[in-house]
Amino acid sequence: LIMDDGITCIYNGDNIVKLIFPEGKEKITTADLPANLAFLKEVVLPPSVKEIGEDAFENIGLEKINLENVEIIGDYAFIGCKNLKEIVLPPSVKEIERYAFEYSGLEKINLENVEKIEYCAFNWSGIKKIVIPDGVEVSVQGEEQAQVHNGVLYYFTEISNKINQACGLNTFGDHIKLNFMTEKYAILKGMTFDKM
């Protein structure tokens, strides 16, 4: 079935299990999606899509999506997608916004080309280990108590919680290596963190 906006819906019985978006679309929003996507398993995006918008695929059964040419994964984009276990981020993805994968089933993600991770991006996801490449900006917005000494960020109280939430991990220990700090972001040196 092809909808008025050119989206192709593939059904299994009465349930939509696959969506194919038409070329020319640049941003996917909730307004683009048909109702009743509880059984949606796969989404195919054209190369024209640059952004997955806020709440776009919130709380659906999504298992597979191609993100070729996507640059921004918006706030809450995949929140609650329990069946989404692994996602391949192409080199085009530069920013992962707030709560993007919170409460998702995501267990594995490659952040090799990502430049910015907003707070709580992977909070309460299935990720147990994450590698943050050198130079990635991790949101610590609004935090005042931080001390930098010899390239190591020593943090107090809330700043640790913000960075923990950004990567969905319980703890980073007692210090974080970084290149430098701005008002809103810690610019990390490449590091690997394990969920405790």
Structural class: mainly beta
Structural shape: globular
Strand count, sense and barrel status of the largest sheet are: 10 strands, mixed
By DSSP (H or I, 4+ residues per run), the number of helices equals 1
Q: Enumerate the spans where pLDDT stays under 50 for 5 or more consecutive residues.
A: 142-159, 168-175
Strand order of the largest sheet: 3-5-7-9-11-13-17-16-15-14
Helicity level: under 10%
How many E-type strands? 18
The separation of the N and C termini measures 47 Å
Q: Give the integer mean of the pLDDT values.
A: 77
The SSE string, one letter per element, is EEEEEEEEEEEEEEEHEEE
Radius of gyration based on Cα positions: 18 Å
* Percentage of β-strand residues: 25-35%
What would you say this structure looks like, in words?
The protein has one helix at residues 158-167, and strands at 8-12, 15-20, 27-28, 42-44, 51-52, 64-65, 72-73, 86-87, 95-96, 108-109, 116-117, 129-132, 137-139, 146-149, 152-155, 176-181, 185-188, 191-194. With 196 residues, the protein is mostly beta strands. Strands 3-5-7-9-11-13-17-16-15-14 form a ten-stranded mixed sheet, covered by helices on one side. Strands 1-2-4-6 form a four-stranded mixed sheet, with no helix packed on it. It has a two-stranded parallel sheet with strand order 8-10. The protein is globular and about 45 Å long. The relative contact order is 0.11.
